[in-house]
Structures are given as C-alpha cells and as structure tokens.
Amino acid sequence: MKLDNPLQMNDWAINKFILVVLSVQLMLFGTVSMDIIGLNIPLLRQIIGFIYLTFLPGILILRILKLHHLGNIRTILYSIGLSLSVLFFIGFFMNMLYPLFGIFKPITLFPLFSTISGVVLILVILSYFIDRDDLNQAYFDVKTLLSTRVLFLLLLPFLSVLGTHLVNYYSNNLLLMIMLFSIFFVVLVVGIDKFIPSDLYPLTVWIIALSLILHKSLISPYINVLDVITEYRTANIVIQNSFWDYTIDGGSNSVLSCVILTPIYYYICNTDITWIYKIIFPIIYSFLAIGAYLLFYIESKSDKIAFFSSIFLISVTPFFAKIPFIPKQSIAEIFLILVFLILVDKRKSVKESLLLVIFSICLVISHYGTSYLFLFSLIFLFVYMSLFGSVNSIKSFLISNYNSKYTNLYYEKSTSFISFNFMLLYVVFAVGWYMYVSNSSIFDFAINMGNDAIHNISQDFFNPQYSRGLNRLDKFPSPLHRLGTLFYILTQFLIFIGLFETVILNKKRFDKFYTGMSVYFFLLLVLSLAKTKFSAMDPGRLFQLSLIILAPYCIIGFFSFQNFFSKKCSNYLKVSATNFKLLSIFFAIFLLFNTGVIYEITKDQPSSISISQESITKYGDIDAVASFYGSIIVTENVFSGEWLGKNMNPNKKVYRGDFVQSYPSLYLFGNLNLSNIETFSDETKSIAPGYIQLSYANIIGGIGSKWYNPLQQRAAYSFNDTLFLFNNKNKLYDNGGSYILFGS
C-alpha cells in the first residue's frame, strides 16, 4: 500500500497540504489551551510543538517558492533550516519592535504563540494563492516502512533512550552495549552488501547518528557539562526577563540560537530548558548526518562512499559526545551544511540563491566561531582561485554575471562558486553583527585571538607543551588507548593521501568550491594541531567540523593506499567489493573505540560517561576520574550549591578544588556569578577568607583538578595534598557528598 510521502509535503495537492497544516495548528492551539486550564496530557504538547516549530514554517515557504521534487533529504533539511530562520527573525523583530508598541515583555507565551501562529496563517494563505498547481506528488510504500530492515533500524534509538534510563536509575549498561554492538553490525553488513539496501543508507546514517547522540545527551537528569552551561544561564535570563538585552557582554548573549530559539521552544512546547538541550536540539543536530550524506553523494557519485564518509563523520567522538552540548555550534552546523549543499548544486536557481542568503545570515547569528571560520574560508577561496584557478574561473568569481535583480548570486555551469558580491555581503554582515551586539565583545575576542596567534607564530610551534592536539598524541594511558589514538592518526593520514591525489595529482574531479574548502579546512587542522592559539575551538571540535568537508578524502585515501600496494586501479569509483568489506571492518572497529566499548569490555582505562560510570571509578586513572566528574552534574553538588546561593554573603568569594566548566552547581543552581568563584589546587599555599565548596569528586573521589591554561585542559591531583588548607575552617553544610566550609 502506498501513501502520500510526509517527507515531501510541499509536493502534495494544495487542499490536502493546507488541511494537514491547519490541523497541526489547531492541535497546538488545543494543547496550549488545555495546559492553561490545567488539563495536561504528558508529551502531547511537546511533540506537536516540536513538529510545528521545526518543520511547518519551512515547508510552507518551500511551497510559496514553488520548490518541488527536491527529494526527501533536501526537503527535510530545507524545511528545518527555513523554520529555524523564521523563528530567528520573528523572535528578533518581536524583541526589537514590540516594546515600541507598549509590549515590554515580548518573549512570553501569548505574544510568541499569537505572532508565530499569525505568521504561519499568512504563509498558508500565500501558499494557497501562489502554488495551487497539480503536482506529481511522491509516495512511499508502507511495506518498506514495516520491513524487517527498517524496524530493526528504528529499534536503535529506542534502545538508546531505554538504555540511558537503565544507566541513570539502575546503573545497568546492558541495553546501551546491545545498541552499540547493533550499530557495529549495521556498519559491517553494509560493507558486504547484505541486509541494508542502498536506498536505506540515508535513514541508516540518521538513525545511527541519533542513537549515538541520545546515548550521551540523556545521561543524568541534568544537562551535560560544556558550553551548554553558559547557554542555559543566558537563555534562562531571557526567559526570566521576558526580553533579550543585546547589550550584555558575552558570547552566548550574541547568538540568536541561544537567546531567541531556546525561549521559543520553552514557551511553545512548555518544556524545561534542560530537556530542550537534552532532546530537542540534539534531534535537530542529528539531521546534519543526512545533509552530510547528500553532500558526499553529490561529490563522489557513489552511495557507498557517501555512506562510509558519513559514518566516519558521526563516529568521531566529538560528533556525539561534545557538539550536542554546544547547542550554538550544533545549530550553526545545520546552516553550514545547508550552505554547502546549495553551493555545490549545479542547478541555476534564483530561489536557491535566496535560500543561500537566508542560511548564511542564520549561520552568522547562530555561532560566532563557526561563522568566522566560514568567513575566513571565503577569503581563502578568493586567494586559492587566484593562485590555482583558471583565468576564466577568476574572472567569473570576481564579476557578478547574473540576471537576477533580487540577489547577487550566480552559478557557473562548471563550478558552484559564489559571486564576489555575496562574499562581501557575508563579511559585512558577520563583522557588523558581532560589532554591534554584546558590545562587540565577540569581535574584540576574534581580533585579539588573531593577533595573539600571529605574534606567537614562531614560539613553541609543534610543541606538545603548547598544543592540545600534539599533547594528546604524546600521552597514552595504556597500549590499547595508544591503538585507539593510532586509528585517529591513520584517518588523518588517509585524508592527506586523498586530498593529495585530488588537489596535487588531480586524479579525482571534485567541484572546485569543494576542493578549495577542503584545502582550507585541512590547513586549519594542521595549524590548530601545531599551536593551540591558532584555534578558537579545541582540536576535537575543529576536527569534527572539518569532516563535514574532509570525510570523503579518508575513503579516497583508504582505497588509494590499498590499491598502491595491491597494484590495482586507483580509481576510487571502481573499487571492488573487497575494498568496501575492509573499509566496513575498519570503521566498525573505529566506532567501538570511539564509543568506549573496547575500553569498557577490557576495563582498560574506560572513559565513557554512558557505559562506564562504575568502571571509570574502579579502573580509571586519576585523570580519567577527574574528567568523569568534570563532565557531569552531581546531585550532591547541586544541593550544596543551592544551599550556598540562598544563605551566603554575596560579597564573599567561593572557592572550589576541582575544575568544572562554569561550575554549574554554583552558576546555575546557586545563581552565583562566575566572577565570585575562585579555584584552589595542590599548588595553593592558603585560601583567602570566604566560602569553600568541597565537591563530590573531592570527598568521595578523593581527587581535585585544575585548569592548565597553555593547553586549556584539566590537570588532576590527589585531594589529600590540599587538606592542610582547611585547618580552622568551619563546616556550614554537609549532605554526605558535598560540604560547605567557611573561613575568615
């Protein structure tokens, strides 16, 4: 039996399309009304609100633009990107304009719900009058959805959710281990052409990505510790004030993904901020995987190369263990992949050029780091084409030969390069936004970082003492961890081989834009590895971001390296099935290392907070234990932080003996300012008068940690070495796992 394809609603008959949109609108109105009068149905408003906000505005705009027959992946991604864009612009203009009309608290439920609903209804009316033509709509076969293969794949996210529940409340990692081994099995069978057909590759990639992300994000009832802590506090301030004060300094306060998007989901979905960051944003971020799959397929023209390139991207640890907890970067990467997809599209379309402008603007207002890296890439492309491009390519890049009066974009038949005018537009907007928002603190930071990097270019270059990347290569807790690191080194070597063949030997024909971007990100990785101050992001985050472009080169390098020794044809598009079998084995094992399964089974310095919580404390070294306690929020610390926030003298400092990013027990739950929190360590001779919070790691774990600034990483020590600091200190609070001391 065949049904209308819900993934391509923009191709439906207009009456059926509008009926579904209005039905969702009415259901949301009904759930909001029920909650107001006290009739709450668990999860109903959250699910409807998520679908409404994340997909409906975008699918309506696609209909208005008459963008049809885009395929499942493009339709989903464009819908998400346009929906988030609409939410950005609605929230921003409400915040700026509504106070002029006497609405001084625009970021609240009624103004948001009424405005968003009004915009959606306007889009419905426009779509009805603009796009009423009969279309060749797409269908999907119910038998395929109910097939054993699909049902098996759909089981994986449920195992991830149930598995984290078992870990959180029963300390049992069985289901998560089953889920991870199931993913291992799926990667293997694709390599031997069994079980998973090629038309299910995008679904497979997305399911694996979502399962891996959720198995990290759902650990503990609190948010995980990373940049999300400051984003949580910033979004909460906007919610409490019902208004975004854009003059406040700080990176998180300058990005709409934090100050606008989070409050909108908070009010419309009636969801605590914690679950927005643990479920909603991670789900949105997971769609990056299928966007990358499509990008890789466009460039390689091979579904298997696209599949394994995507597996490489989603199996590196930062993809599922770090970026989901930096929401601003995760949202920015969605817009980045959308920009890339449009730029490699050879079709000459003014409408997609308009989308390019929209997505580029949203990239800027989503994350300063990612947007500036893309800005520098545009400048690099200009230089790259000037040095290595043909005369015609340079001329086409500089001259805006387009016939649209609405945009300054064009597409060549042979390349996808954007016009110089677009590059100028992006640079001006990116610089202007961060100069005038948050008192230009982000712009000043970028300038200072660049100056610091340039002035120190010859100092300690490739020195492990000053390079986070090289320092990690220099430290191995065990031979097995050394092997895991060697897998990473090998993948980067293969990327180099693949890029060398493509750029230098010119054996592979990639789009010139894609090739230029590849060279840029590879050089950026080398510089960040050589010197910490060359990278605004840590090497893991930058590596993951770079793989959005560089991942296929690992596959090319793998086949080239193998064919070199086997004296086979080096054309990566004509490789034998045996090559893919070896490749599937390689990435399946790579995945087991990165998820921590290997270390958990062998009890060899386990490090995964999802499957190895007990093993870390039993078998991990002091650095592993310190990293574990620095990655989670412990309930005992929360209770002591809340107590201290309510009872302390606000003029006194609070001292901590273990480094945790932003100290959430004090910053979030105690509502302290970071300026009031100081640290002590085994190098401290005495502690000034004030409060001391002894954490769970100090008391139960017996460890402390400090921040080593040249490498910007944690350094652990035995907490017994600091006990003399607490002589003559009075204990004010004790919950068994965390103390509050005071000394004058």
From TrEMBL:
A Pfam family: DUF2206
Sequence intervals crossing the membrane: 12-37, 43-65, 77-101, 107-130, 150-168, 174-191, 203-223, 275-298, 305-323, 352-368, 374-394, 415-436, 486-506, 513-530, 542-561, 582-599
Keyword Translocase annotated: no
Coiled coil: none
UniProt keyword terms in alphabetical order: Membrane, Transmembrane, Transmembrane helix
Keyword Transmembrane helix annotated: yes
This protein's name: DUF2206 domain-containing protein
